Amino acid sequence: MAAHRSRSRFAADRGLTTRMVTTMFFIGLLYVVFVGVLVALLSNAWPFILVIAGGLFIAQFWFSDRIVEYSMGARVVTPEEAPELHGAVDRVCALADMAKPRVAIANSDVPNAFATGRNERTALVCATTGLLRRLEPEELEGVLAHELSHVAHRDVAVMTIASFLGVLAGLITRATLWGSVGRAGRNGNAALLMILIPVISAAVYAVSFLLTRLLSRYRELSADRAAALLTGRPSALASALTKVTGDMARIPTQDLRKAEPYNAFWFAPAFSSRESLARLLSSHPSLEKRLEQLGRISAELARP
C-alpha cells in the first residue's frame, strides 16, 4: 500500500478551497471573539475558560473521526467480511490514485454513506446495510467516489472542526455559568451575566451554523461533480441519488430521527418530517439541483 499522497486524481475545486478557507477564517475569528468576551465578562475565571476551550478544541481535532464513527454505528470490516464493498472501494481508490481508507459498515436500514478522518491516513468510508442492499455496483461506486472526494479535498476535517465551534460555544457557556455566576453574584453582576452569556452564545451558534450550512451545500455539489468526472458515469450517481432520496420516505420515522443529527456527514440527508424546518436549512442542496448538475456533466462528457 502506498504511503500518504498529497494529491489525487479527483478534480481540483478552487471554489471549494476558497470557501473552506473563508469559512474557517470567519468561524475562527468568531471563536476568538467569543472566548475574549467571556474572559472580559468573567475576568476571575479566565484560566478556567481558556483551559476548557483549548482542551475541547484539541480533543475534537484529534478524536473527531472516532466520535463520528461511534455516534453513527460504524464497524470496520475486513475484505473477507464485505468483499463487494471492499472491491468497490479498491476500484475507486485505483481510479483516484489515493490510499485506501478504512472500510466500515453501519447496521441501519437508512440507505446512506459517509466519510470521516482528518486526512487520508486516518480516513474511513462507511456504507449502511440499507445502502448496500439497494444499490447496483456502479451506483455504489458513484456514492463511494462522492465520499472519497470529501477525503481527498479535506473538507471532511474542515466541516467537522467548523461545526464543532458552534457546539463549543454552548459547552463553554454552560461551564462558565455554573462556575462563575455564584462569584459574580457577590458583585451584583449575576443577573447581567445570566442575560448576556446565553445571548452571546446563541449569536455565535447561529452565525457558525449559517456559515457551515453554506459551505456544506457547496461541498456536496463539489463532491458530486468530482465523483462524476472521476468515474465517468454521472448517470450512475444520479440513479443512486434518486434511489436513496426516494427510499427515505419508506424508512420508519424512528430510524430517520436517529440519523437526522448527522445529516452534515451523510451522502443524502435524512429527514423525519416532510415539513421539517431542517429542510429549509439543510446541509445539502436539493435533489433537483444535484441532478441538474449531473445532467450537465453527462452532456459535457458526451460531447466529442
From TrEMBL:
Residues covered by the Peptidase M48 domain: 80-295
> What cofactor does its activity depend on?
Zn(2+)
- Name the residues that bind Zn(2+): 146, 150, 220
Cross-referenced Pfam families, in alphabetical order?
A: Peptidase_M48 (PF01435)
Query: Where does this polypeptide localize?
Result: Cell membrane
Q: How is the cofactor bound?
A: Binds 1 zinc ion per subunit.
Keywords, sorted A to Z: Cell membrane, Hydrolase, Membrane, Metal-binding, Metalloprotease, Protease, Transmembrane, Transmembrane helix, Zinc
Which GO terms fall under molecular function for this chain's record?
metallopeptidase activity
Name of the protein described by the UniProt record: Protease HtpX homolog
Origin species: Streptomyces albipurpureus
Q: List the lineage, top down.
A: Bacteria, Bacillati, Actinomycetota, Actinomycetes, Kitasatosporales
This protein's gene is called: htpX
